[in-house]
Amino acid sequence: xxKKFTEEDDALLAxxxxxxxxxxxxxxxxxxxxxxxxxxxxxxxxxxxGHIPGHGEDRDIxxxxxxxxxxxxxxxxxxxxLVEPFDHQGTACRAAPWVRDGQGSTG
Length: 107
Prior knowledge:
This protein is an all-alpha fold. The protein has helices at residues 7-16, 30-49, 61-75, 77-83. The chain is elongated, with a radius of gyration of 20 Å.
């Protein structure tokens, strides 16, 4: 467990001429946390398998679930913006062929 920052720590940093920076943790809704966690699973899949999850009966059930999840993230601009800082692979931030005019419909 991390030690809490004390006044003594602050005094030592002041003596060294170092200014402590306070970072605020972003406040996210439970829905946003679920979207981010789901996207992390998709990123792990892409890293492990070398391709974006896809649909099809020949695909593993988890791959198909990730494909649906990715489709929904890509289909909503606010979700794409939410996961963009975590999208080092370019998985969600590029538009999918089925996404038109902000709609995530597949049909």
